[in-house]
Amino acid sequence: MNDLRLPLLGAGAWAGALAGPFGVTGGMLGAVLLVVLGSVLAVAGGWAIHRRRATALALVVMVAGAAAVAGLHAARVSDNPVADLAERRAQVRVTATVTTDPKEVTGQHATYQLRRISVREIKGRGVVYRLRTPVVVLGQDGWADVPLGTTVSTTGRLGPSDSHEESALLIAGAPRVVAGPGVWWRASDSLRGSIRDAVAHRPPDQAALVPALVDGDDTGLSDELADDFRTTGLTHLLAVSGTNLTLVVGFMLIVARWAGVRGRGLYAVGVLGILGFIVLARTEPSVVRAAAMGAVGLLAMTHNGRQRALRGLGAAVTGLLLIDPGLATSVGFTLSVLATAGILIFGPPWRDAMRRWMPQWCAEAIAVPAAAQLACTPVVAAISGQVSLVAVLANLLVEPAVAPATVLGLLGGLLGLAWEPLGMVAGTTATWCVAWIIAVARFGAGLPTAQVGWGTGPLALGVLVAVCAGIAFVAPRILRHPVTGVAGCLVLLAVALVRLPTPAWPPPGWVLAMCDVGQGDALAVRTGAGSAVVVDAGPDPDLVDDCLDRLEIDHVPLAVVTHFHADHVSGIEGVFAGRQVGEVWTSRLQDPGEGVRLVTETARSAGVVPGPAPYGATATIGEVRLQVLWPMTDSETRGPGDGSTANDASVVLLVESHGLRLLLTGDIEPEGQERLADDLAGLDVDVLKVPHHGSRYQDLDWLRTLRPQVALTSVGADNDYGHPATATVRGLETGGTEVYRTDRDGSLAVVESGGEADVVTQ
């Protein structure tokens, strides 16, 4: 029988930490009342045993204490002189210690370095304050070269922070070093640099992945590979996790045993290993959380490991939340705890069931990733709107390579400090291991049903939780028999490898279709039976012709060319092939000339004279009402021939059909988006066609204010432009938008369902 008292207290601490920031008094009182009521009901139902009464009382105290700590923590961060100066947008001089590594972020007009600092002294409005509080810095490139742990002085303007974890946002000038980092930080930087040097001669993705496995340093990892890892459920390998610590400290313990260390000496090695790992991977909250979960993993490998690890998990959750209540809302913390709990609770029964008919090592290799993935699935779906169908298979395939890659990567760094060529030997061997991991990620992401869309509403997530609970309950019964166990594994494999049947194409009542034409745009807005407005024509006439044939379009009352780049107009002949086209609207900017000539000649051969889209005009065509929002009537008609100018002159349309509002943006650039944001303040849409194939250059603040339910990105598989950019996709998803893309989802169709936009993929 599992002793769940400490895990229960951990859950209570979590509840209290979530309630605390809403007010020390209100949050604490509400949490206490809920738990007291539950405790009274439990006692009335037979929980009269002394131990259980004591547990109930401890739970009440824990919820109340965690709520109080969280409330005080939030108050300490938000109610201090720095926060007050931030509200007044004060110009300040700051002395602070840098506490995080740089992260590059792209703003509307420039690229910035994002750092976190701990303020020690601040001068603003003529007053000097000495205190310690966290602040986020947005600075220029000079901030990228400041080592972690350095004390700096700088000036800048404060602004309010949108997080409970920092007192303010500082738009900073150049930093001036006051004091260098301590010896531990210098040692950490040397080892991290040596790990990177040991693999620098290898292919870029391999060279970037080894440091990510060892210490979470994913600098240089391509957006494309990061997306593949996300699709296949391997993202945990790119960040500091409990697995990293378990492997690194486990390796140290093995070496210590070989050296004759026993008993308490091994515990000392373990503690030193954990502390050293925290310094190596940085003392950020995510690293401390990973260290705690890794320590739980080490406990699981000891005598009576499962019981000790469950208690350790409860204690770790409680301790972490009391030290840093902000972890209660951290997605990484949630996934880490759920994965660890899943392995400890679901893993052993599944392993024991399969051990009846397969070797233990094989049963454990299957049970561990499956249990972790199942426990995390509802949270992942809530965040991404998707459920990965290949995550278990991918994690199973990469598991044999993770441990040697991590240990060899660390060894390469350590040996490289003594002699660089020796470090490169170990580093090269580590990259051979990660090459397999990369191959699995790319293969898995390319499978027909690597992931499926899933709703993020309460009902959809409730159903998913129920399904996961049912799987956890019945899995041991299915897996204990070889016939049903093998059948279950084959079903899982088939689901990953075979494309699931989709509804008939086009789906009944479709409103907008985005054709999969590779790296280019081609959209159809349904105006009636067999009729559609076509917006852009993609790079290939055959592809757009085939798409319109499948949509059963034989009449095009209006064709719109947003701009004249080849990936939008080279397929124009396919629009006219066998179809009656009424009008052709184009961008006012007649550039580049080759695209202009192709559109003009093709249209005129069918008796149609293209003309510029009339700014501000509203047209009703069948079931559709559309309005031209851009470019304006005073915009240029001749361009310099560069890509950005033509992109920014794209025709932008607001379309209304069947109660849905759709914004079709062409390739408009951030400058044009900023103008539209000023002109269209307060605009809400249901569907957004993401500008410029999801390029990183976006006015994300404006796109998020549109509050689209879904965003569609037309993009070619394995394109050379890095489209769509991870920052753009994540920026939209964090606002609650479901993002679809043609390179993975195929052609897309928007349908109206209960007043909302749904997307059907082909």
Write the layout of secondary structure elements.
Layout: H1 5-19, H2 24-44, H3 50-78, H4 81-87, E1 91-98, E2 103-106, E3 111-124, E4 127-139, E5 151-159, E6 168-172, E7 176-179, H5 183-199, H6 204-215, H7 223-231, H8 242-258, H9 264-281, H10 285-300, H11 305-323, H12 331-345, H13 347-354, H14 360-384, E8 386-388, H15 391-418, H16 420-445, E9 451-453, H17 458-479, H18 482-497, E10 510-514, E11 523-528, E12 531-535, H19 541-550, E13 555-561, H20 566-569, H21 572-576, E14 580-586, H22 593-605, E15 611-612, E16 618-621, E17 624-630, H23 643-648, E18 652-657, E19 660-664, H24 670-679, E20 687-689, H25 700-705, E21 710-713, H26 726-733, E22 738-741, H27 742-745, E23 748-753, E24 756-761
Helix pairs in contact: 1-2, 1-3, 1-11, 2-3, 5-6, 5-15, 5-16, 6-15, 6-16, 7-16, 8-9, 8-10, 8-15, 9-10, 10-11, 10-12, 11-12, 12-14, 13-14, 13-17, 14-15, 14-17, 15-16
Quick description:
It comes from Nocardioides luteus. With 762 residues, the chain is of the alpha/beta class. The model is unreliable at 23-50 (pLDDT under 50).
Mind explaining what this structure looks like?
The chain crosses the membrane at residues 29-49, 56-75, 237-258, 265-281, 326-346, 366-394, 401-419, 425-445, 452-475, 481-500. Its main location: membrane. The chain has four domains: 5-78, no CATH class; 81-181, Nucleic acid-binding proteins (OB fold (Dihydrolipoamide Acetyltransferase, E2P)), CATH 2.40.50.140; 186-467, no CATH class; 510-754, Ribonuclease Z/Hydroxyacylglutathione hydrolase-like (Metallo-beta-lactamase, Chain A), CATH 3.60.15.10. Helices cover 51% and strands 18% of the residues. A hairpin with a 2-residue loop joins strand 3 and strand 4. The radius of gyration is 29 Å and the shape is globular.
